[in-house]
Structure prediction request, 405 residues.
Amino acid sequence: MSLTAFSKLGLSAPLADALKKAGITDPTEIQTQTIPPALAGRDIMATAETGSGKTLAFLLPIIERLGAPGPTRALVLAPTRELALQIEANAKIYGRRAGLRTVAVVGGQSLPSQIKALRTGVDILVATPGRLNDLIERGSVQLKAIEVFVLDEADRMLDMGFLPQVRRIIKHVPRKRQTMLLTATLSREVERLAQELLTSYTRVEAERSATTVATLTQKAFAVLSHAKTPMLLALLKQHTDQTFLVFTQTRRGADKVARILAANKHQVGTLHSDRSQSQRNTALASFRSGRVRVLVATDVAARGIDVDDISFVVNYEVPATADDYIHRVGRTARAGRDGAAYTLVSPEEESNLASIERIAGVRIERSRLTGFTDGRSEEQVKLTTEIGRLRSSSTRSFRASRAAR
Prediction:
C-alpha cells in the first residue's frame, strides 16, 4: 500500500499524517474493514485476534468524528486497567492535533484525581466498568452526550463477569448512538450481547493468519509439579540476557514464584489484580525499560499489555483454555521478531495440553532441558506424556459418543 493508504479509507490528511509520523503507513486487515463503515456511523461487530490493530480500528473513526473539543461524546469500556491505559495513550497521541482530551478512569488509582480530571473536561472517556459505575453513582460523570460507545475485548469482559456492570452503564448512555463491539473470540454469549447492543450492524471478521506466528518457537517441558520452580531457575540461568514473561494461574502463585526468583538474585516484577495500580504501572515500566528482566503475571496481562521484544513467555502452569494459551504466547514474537513460548507441563496437566493443541491447531514440541532432571528417566517421562494424550483422546471419544446419541 502507498503512504496515503489511511487517507483512502476516509481519514483526513492531518490524521493520516500523524499516523505516518508514528511509522504507521499500512492499515491492518481489521482497520481496512472497520474504518470506512465506522466513519459512516454504522454499528460495528468486529472479530480479530489480539495484536491485529483493533484499538486504532475504533479510535481513528472516533477522533475523526469528534473533530474538536466538546462534552464527553465517546465512551470506551475495557476489561482491564492495563488495556484502558493503553487505549488512553493511543487516543492522546492521535487526538492531540484536534485538541481532544482523553481521560482513563480505572480502579486502583486515586478517585479524587480522576474526578478532578473529569471536571476539567474530557472528550474521550476510557474506563473499566467497576470504576465507571462508582463515578456514576457519585454523580461525578455525565454520559448523556455520548455519541459513540465502544465495548473492547467483549469476550474477556464476559469472562470476567462484567456483563451486569456493563448493562448498568448502558442505562446512562443515549439510545441513539453508534456502538462498536470488538472481540478476539466469538462465543454464543458474545453473539447474544451483540444482538442486545447493536442495531443494523456491519459484521467485520479479520482472517486469523494463524493461531500462532511463524517466528514463534513453542516447546513443552515435562516436569513434576515440585520441580517447576527449579526448572524455571534453570531456564533463567541458561538465558541470562533475555527477558521473561512468566504466567501463573493464581495471584498467590505469582507472588510465590516472584519471591523465590527474587531470593535467587533475579530482578523481578509482579502483575496481578491484587497489586495497586501504582504497583502495576511500576512493574510494567520496569519491565519495559529493562530494569527487571522477569515479569510474573496472571492472565490479567495476557491482553492489553504492549511490551516490545519479550524473549520468552513461560507458562508456569498449562493455561485453562486454548484461547488463554494463544493470548499468552502472543506477547512474544511480535512485529516479525523471534520469540519462544515454553510450557512447563506436569503429568496431571498433559491431557489439558493435548486438548489445547487440538483446539488451537498447534503442535507443541516436547523437549527436555539440557542438564536438568526432575528425578525421572526419559522413558518414564515419555510414558507419562503418552498416558496424558491417551486420556485426552479417550475423553474426546466419550464426549463425541454422548453427543451422537
In short: The chain is about 45% helix and 15% strand. Residues 395-405 have pLDDT under 50 and may be disordered.
